[in-house]
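subagent[fold] <- orchestrator: predict structure for attached chain, return tokens only, no commentary.
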Amino acid sequence: MRHRKPPPAVSDPTRKIIHVDMDAFYASVEQRDDPGLRGRPVVVAWRGARSVVCAASYEARQFGVRSAMPAVRAERLCPQAVFVPPDFVRYRAVSLSVRAIFARHTDLVEPLSLDEAYLDVTAPKTALASATAIAEHIRSAIRDETRLTASAGVAPNKFLAKIASDWRKPDGLFVIRPRDAQAFLDPLPVARLPGVGKVMDAKLEALGLRTVGQLRDYPAQALEERFGRWGRRLAELAHGIDETAVVPDRPTLQVSSEDTFARDLRLAELEPEIRRLAESTWAAYLRETGRVARTIVLKLKTSDFRTLTRSVTPAQLPASAQALADVACALRTRVDDGDATRYRLVGVALTGLVDAHDATAGQADLFGE
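subagent[fold] -> orchestrator:
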């Protein structure tokens, strides 16, 4: 079998990418604002059997507490933890302050969430001598202006920069220079590559591929034949290649709200919850100035964790939260799952958001035009 030549290592060494990741962001904001929480294991989560951990301080992480973990498990692991309900309005305000710091150095900022972002500083707005100097300057400004810490990774592409930012957490900086990229990658477990979860890791283990270096030596065409386009992507990552651009201000494609109940509910009992969530979704939608939605989605999760969605794309979208709730409630009639089914979660979403000038006349009516 004739194999393709492997891709060249780090295809564009001239790019300068920074990944900035705030350290235990939500928990750190809580500890900053409440001196009584400093040095203590803090878990940002609502208490309850259905709640999950939004964030954990480093003191809590020492006990094995992690984000997305069920709150009841976090409490078992760390009985002395202080549980603090999340305050996303406050976290969002801090995030905007951090992004203002980024904007002093480049307009090419791609936020991934409230607490992390990519920056392309190949052509920076400042006269700082290097990407490393910019990263240091950003971390210092975050510390001085927000009284929080951030870790940063500097590399020739996004993939490497994200790995680097995690390398010396918390409050650290790590630089992967183009000439050092392959030597850095080769000894890493393949599980460190983005997209390699437990299932893919097991498949690679079956091929005898445990390190990135072993994956790099494996024929790229053989990977592609076995795993499709993802196999080709694996080969590129093993060679330190990631051509993905830093894309600022990605447009919002959907707004949604969902909630997990304290107890499972029947379909007929969901209307108050749907109406409450429709209010929240509508409020978020009104903040998307100049964007128009196309589709209304009702999301349900059953007590046995099956996820159901029902949607409608009307010729003219509703013009109020109440009208949105009416449509979402009506979508329940399209759920044929038996009277015995109980639901643990419901969500209401507006999806398919497009710029207003691209929307149809019917959609423009949503804004009262």
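orchestrator: received. Logging for downstream: The chain has four domains: 17-21+89-180, 25-86, 186-238, 254-367. The CA atoms of residues 267 and 333 lie 9 Å apart.
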